[in-house]
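Per reviewer request, we include the raw input and output of the structure prediction for the construct analysed in the revised manuscript.
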Amino acid sequence: IIGLSNPVTSASTLAATYNYMHRGCLSAVCATDTGTFVIAADGTWSSCPGANLGAGACASGGRSGTLVSGGNGLFQVMEGATNVGTAIGFNSAGQNVLLIDLKDVRAGGLGIGLVVGSQQTTLTSAQTDGTWIAGTSAGDWAIFTASGTTITVTNVDGLPVNIVGSFTANAPWQGMASTNGGGLGFLAGNGVYVLETANGYAELGVRLH
């Protein structure tokens, strides 16, 4: 359950280009992917898996539809005549974040799950440096520190470890980060990130204060 005290209430305020992570399940088969979507001021949207719509048209796999306001900051996400889910948006440190609760059980649909979208902004070390705790859809959790481009995992499922890795900011495009282990992620507002792991799981992390 996610609650917001001051959600965005108009589609025009949500207008931007977003990075997204999608985790959906259809017929007991679950998958994760990343990509981008664009929301226009009139509430129309388009999406593209694995590519940056901010740099041009979608080569394949794109979707499109409209956001329909349901009042009180809730939006129906329509793809044609199908309501694929319910969205709620907010602004965090000047960055729009959109969460979509998916309910699309059509063959080839988005599935039952979640989309997290974050407005494209340049990723900086000031945003990523610190100590983070993360959980995955596989049921594991970890604590790690980020400093510059270095990631040091210090705890996995309650056991102390010392695993050093790295990431590249703003790759493969603006606002994304790619890890040396094959993960792709981005910040979803201030102090929260999502990641598609190399083996197809979803990871959610928050910075510890």
